[in-house]
Amino acid sequence: MTIALGIETSCDETSVAIVESSPNEERLRVHCNLIATQFDLHAKFGGVVPEIASRAHLQKLDLLVREALESTGIAPADLDVVTVTCMPGLIGTLLVGVTAARTLAWSWDKPLLGVNHIHAHATSAAIELDAPPWPAVALVVSGGHTSLYHVRDWDDISLLGATIDDAAGEAFDKVAAILELGYPGGPIVDRRAATGNPAAVAFPRSMLKGESLDFSFSGLKTAVLYEVHGRGNTSGGLVGITEERIADICASFSQAVVDVLVAKTRQAVRSTGARSVVVGGGVAANSVLRRDLTAACSADGIAVHLTPMRYCTDNAAMIASHGIRLFERGHRSDLALGASANVKD
Ligand code: KG4
Ligand code: ZN
């Protein structure tokens, strides 16, 4: 039996989790997954303000660690490892989590393990599965990343392709801003799209030609801007645009993003020979993506594992889960663990 504490502070959610693995069971047990969102602090700025985010993590993190231990009845002595997101993300917010994890590991005399946030998103669909879905193609779609990975095991993950400009979630957030729908935009655009016509506007599906598994969403975002304001006029308000039209634009935009994500994921499955697809990251909560990817994989005879909704957006359960599997495979970090805003793979 292995018990891991997980800490996640890479962006605007402070999260602490305790996860347990047992030798006889593949399914991990998530004892708790506490998330303090900073939504209200950043909403008025229309995006995450790094300095405000770092301060909020500092205020919340030790309280969440205490609550996690008290609410589960697990003592520091019961823990086998302290896991923490060490990359990628906002450098200031990452350092808050990494510094806290280093301090806890040192004072409790426990091993420390830094976890790649994107790898944790890539494997989050496996947290509650009875058998590992590897080898799999993992689609990671979040506010900062849109990537395809070949996952052969929890610690054997290679990049197949990634966005060359905007991430899918970023595109959702920017389209919501263009349509003055609020922040974060993904869930709102998703809701508004439900009543719209996905064929109303023929938005571009970029980079579908050729073998590349890279993505590009900035052209699509610009196409939405032109559709809303007209070419050459990007400063006007939303005068004259009906609620129905907004729903149609949301539906057509969502369908354009999802068509590309599904096509590239299928292509990645063909090129790797993987037998399953796993999907994680905030945009994995998108209803059109969940529907279309499930249908496509079923048509291709490929198993698809969608990350449970509660583990799609940033959370420490995925960090502790990924960390526990790395720990079991012998991985450890030095107590001098640093943080990195970017990641190469
Ligand atoms: O994984 P995440 O919590 O943070 C990052 O690591 O980036 O992802 C947040 C992103 C935001 O861009 C948000 O708008 C998007 O996920 N998102 C969605 C939905 N729910 C969250 N995008 C589309 N549809 C959704 N239902
Ligand atoms: Zn994330």
Structure, described:
The strands form two sheets. The protein has a five-stranded mixed beta sheet with strand order 3-2-1-4-5, with helices on both faces. It has a five-stranded mixed beta sheet with strand order 8-7-6-9-10. Strand 6 (136-141) and strand 7 form a beta hairpin. Helix 5 (168-178) runs parallel beside helix 7. It has helices at 39-43, 50-72, 91-108, 117-123, 168-178, 185-193, 218-229, 243-272, 287-300, 316-328, and strands at residues 2-8, 13-22, 25-37, 81-87, 112-116, 136-141, 146-153, 156-162, 276-280, 303-306. It is of the alpha/beta class. The mean pLDDT is 94. The longest helix is centred in the last third of the chain and has 30 residues, at 243-272. The two termini are 31 Å apart. It binds 5'-O-[(R)-(carboxyoxy)(hydroxy)phosphoryl]adenosine and zinc ion. The site of zinc ion has 5 residues, from helix 4.
